[in-house]
Amino acid sequence: MNKIFARFMKDESGATAIEYGLIASLIGVAIIAGVRILGTSLSATFSAVSSNLTTQ
Fold this sequence. Notes:
Number of helices: 2
């Protein structure tokens, strides 16, 4: 029983998978935040262009 528990404590493959999952989720959050910020800026730009085109 002690051997099994010692082998389980030394196994770090699960920790690596969790770390990769955390990195992937942080990248996803960064992409979503960037798209939201960029989307707001693009929306304002297209609205300005559209209003300038309709007035001329």
